[in-house]
Design a protein that fits this description.
This protein is α/β, with parallel strands linked by helices and 243 residues long. The chain contains nine helices and nine strands. A six-stranded parallel sheet has the order 3-5-6-7-8-9. The protein has a three-stranded parallel sheet with strand order 1-2-4, covered by helices on one side. The relative contact order is 0.16.
């Protein structure tokens, strides 16, 4: 089940889709490109939020405004959580994990790596029993020293690549390295709009080996309910979930 693990399709909640019409157009484009399941991951910046509860309410309201009209029905909620000092101490931070999974998407600061970042990551992982997903890992090549890139790559984490990593040689080399090392990898469009940051699964599907894509999709389990929403025959549903 082709899964977009990182995108900003929820309307009006962050710097992604500005309105429901744009959100539905983005989802329609994803569907045309073959996407069957979406994790909506709006930005969560703790220093900008009045409370986690208020953020969760806004996220749910944004989702509710498009859910009944979206051509893709398998949409689950998550967040792209900026790593800040003390983020691991926010009560209930695990509520931002991707629904139907034990994964939580974290975004590193766009400045060179410091020890406290590892402390926040490790505390979230151990305190809540969650699998850490590091967002668009290839984007940090521009900001972090080679030594600190290596430190990040030693993190016990799943590494998320944006689809456009296939277009940049340096990014593609990092992806190829992690594939060769058999590191866990997932993909996302990181789509924000219908313009310069539109859904781009056409790029990814052209450049990615089928086994690598299959491994990405497999990081989130497939349920009978999800298959029913795809309207596929029962025999194929049973095969998909291994019955």
């Amino acid at each position: 089940m082709l899964t977009d693990y990182h995108c900003h399709i929820l309307p009006g909640i962050d710097d992604g889709s500005p309105d429901a019409m744009t959100s539905l157009a983005m989802i329609e484009m994803m569907s045309a490109q073959g996407v069957e399941r979406i994790i909506a991951t709006p930005h969560f910046y703790a220093h900008e939020e009045r409370s986690l509860t208020e953020y969760l309410i806004r996220r749910e309201e944004a989702f509710d405004s498009i859910a009944d009209f979206a051509v893709i029905k398998n949409i689950f909620l998550g967040a792209e959580i900026a790593i800040e000092h003390g983020i691991s101490m926010i009560s209930g931070i695990d509520k931002l994990a991707m629904e139907e999974s034990d994964m939580i998407l974290l975004e590193l600061p766009f400045r060179d790596y410091e020890d406290w970042m590892s402390e926040e990551i490790n505390t979230i992982a151990s305190g809540y029993g969650l699998k850490i997903v590091l967002a668009h890992i290839h984007r940090y090549l521009e900001y972090y020293s080679p030594d600190n890139i290596e430190r990040i790559l030693q993190t016990d984490a799943i590494f998320q690549f944006n689809n456009d990593a296939f277009l940049v040689q340096r990014d593609k080399e990092l992806l190829d390295r992690l594939i060769k090392e058999k590191r866990p990898i997932i993909f996302g469009s990181d789509a924000h709009n219908m313009g310069a940051r539109r859904p781009n699964w056409d790029i990814m599907l052209e450049g990615c080996a089928p086994d690598v894509l299959e491994a990405s999709n497999a990081h989130m389990k497939i349920t009978e309910e999800q298959l029913q929403l795809l309207n596929i025959p029962q025999q194929m549903q049973a095969e998909a979930i291994g019955e």
